[in-house]
Amino acid sequence: MSAERATGAAAALAAPVAAFWAAFQAATGAVDDARFYEAFAFGDSEELAASLAQLVLAGRKRATAGLLWALEAEGKRLPRAGDLSVVTTWAGQPLCVIETLQVDVVPFDQVGAEFAAREGEGDGSLAYWRQAHAEFFARECARLGRTASDAMPVVCERFVVLYPPLR
Questions:
Q1: What are the DSSP E strand ranges found in the chain?
Q2: How many CA atoms are closer than 13 Å to the CA of 47, on its beta-carbon side?
Q3: What is the CATH number of the domain that holds 148?
Q4: What totals of helices (H) and strands (E) does the chain contain, helices first?
Q5: In whole numbers, what is the pLDDT of the chain averaged over residues?
Q6: Which of 84, 112, 149, 153 counts the most CB atoms within 10 A of its CB?
Q7: What total of structural domains would you count in the chain?
Q8: Tens of pLDDT along 91-150?
């Protein structure tokens, strides 16, 4: 998930994302625009966005995590199963369309090893996940004026890449 998200109806997308969304719709059949959730870049920096997007495109990253507090601060609803999102580069160039499969909100210290492995980052271990996400969430909390803790609510989202099909 990301601190930098372009939100709104599919019709209000930036031109490159709108064209990509239209290509996705043409390739997969009519997809209801109501299923569009967001266009976003992972992370909070260009480098992180690029590395996480590459993991998605390689088929290794099939989940993402963000702070519930960030969604609340942005006035956004939780993603839900069936939502479609466009993953972009930091500069907003579209890379793929993902479909949300499952969303759970759990305290940071209760995120499990299966979810950490599904995120596909680092060595895939829960220890790596906790270290990397503690650092990321500390930055998010500072931006939001919140205090990071083991009990902070984490949105754990599982997804699949729909377009373009992974090889």
A1: 5-6, 36-40, 63-67, 84-88, 94-107, 153-163
A2: 0
A3: 3.10.400.10
A4: 5, 6
A5: 92
A6: 84
A7: 1
A8: 999 999 999 999 999 999 999 999 999 999 999 999 999 999 999 999 999 999 999 999
DSSP, collapsed to helix, strand or coil, labels residue 94 as strand
Instruction: Scan for tokens 């990071």, then name that residue.
Output: 148
Question: What's this model's pTM, rounded to 2 decimal places?
Answer: 0.90
Pull the structure tokens for residue 16: 């490159």
Task: State pLDDT tens for residues 153-166.
Answer: 999 999 999 999 76
What tokens appear for 104 in the block? 């759970």
Q: How far apart are CA 116 and CA 120, in angstroms?
A: 7
Which residues are CB-neighbours of 40 under 8 A, at least 6 positions away?
Answer: 1, 2, 4, 5, 6, 85, 86, 87, 88
Distance CA 71, CA 63 (A): 17
Confidence of residue 7 (pLDDT cuts 50, 70, 90): very low
For residue 5, what pLDDT is reported? 38
Residue 133 and residue 154: Cα distance in Å, rounded?
10
Which structural domain, as residue segments, surrounds residue 113?
5-163
- Would the pLDDT of 2 be above 60? no
Give how far Cα 59 sits from Cα of 33, 52, 55, 63, 105, Å.
25, 11, 6, 11, 24
